[in-house]
From TrEMBL:
It comes from the Bacteria. One of its GO terms (molecular function) is DNA binding. SUPFAM superfamilies: Probable bacterial effector-binding domain (SSF55136), Putative DNA-binding domain (SSF46955). InterPro entries: AraC_E-bd, Cass2, DNA-bd_dom_put_sf, MerR-type_HTH_dom, MerR_fam, Reg_factor_effector_dom_sf. The keyword Disulfide bond does not apply. The lineage of its organism: Bacteria, Bacillati, Bacillota, Clostridia, Peptostreptococcales. It comes from Alkaliphilus pronyensis. The keyword Lipid biosynthesis does not apply. Keywords: DNA-binding, Repressor, Transcription, Transcription regulation. This is MerR family transcriptional regulator. Residues 4-74 form the HTH merR-type domain.
Amino acid sequence: MIIVYTIGEFSRIGMISTSALRFYDEIGLLKPSKINRFNGYRYYSEDQVEDIHFITEMREYEFSLEEIKGFIGSNKINLVAELQKKHEKLFWKQQKILYVRRKLKERIKKTQGADSFMEINNKANKLEIKVASKDKPIKTVGISINIPAWPPEDASIFGDLWSQYWDRDVSSKISNKIYPSVRYGILAFTEAGIQYIVADAVSSYEDIPEGLVTFDIPKGEYAVCTFNGETFDEMVNSSMQRANDYLLTTWLPKTEYKHAESFSLEVYDDRSRKKEYPEMDIMQPIVKKG
């Protein structure tokens, strides 16, 4: 027996309005399996129940109707890739919300005249340094911003560049990526000026999209400082500042090394996406003192 549903029944199954179903028909996203040519009544088949549930689910993930239309009938590999990109984009969106909430909390306490406070948790105080050798240079491609003076007047320029990176979906435009889950934040001091780059590592500089820049991370020895924070926002702000200060002003002077190059690296990978106590590395190029 073939089961069919009226538009009203199907709207309840899909938990959307009948007007939305009519709109889906107009744009070719989901057409009724049958339309009565005498009275115009629309009917949907049992096979379309999975389709409407899929569409509803994708809408929850904030995909546009045009994007969802492209998913229907596409292969699983393409769908998984799009879902992974959305997952990562929503992660950074969540971090921005957490950052704003923290700033609001600080503003409320400051306005009320209360002393600022910080809950110290030993789990969020990880700080480890080791020396690591890179046998070959790493090619990177990404987007950049020029910084007129150091330190910058507005530190939010770094976060803004990361937002551009995700909003413009830069990573998906870069070919030949060798570490798909790793992103670099590169601060470079050159004769041309100061530059901050958000980049992916690549195997070659072929087919570089217009508007993107390249940077070679040299081979050699690096001081690698691994640290964490209670939240992602804490990690990339107060924890990173503390780690940088300790590495350059406390650890390095006591070793046989000195700073070698006029750049530094931030390394974000799967550890950085942990919900609790995310971790990352900062890397400073070093050489032995003469």
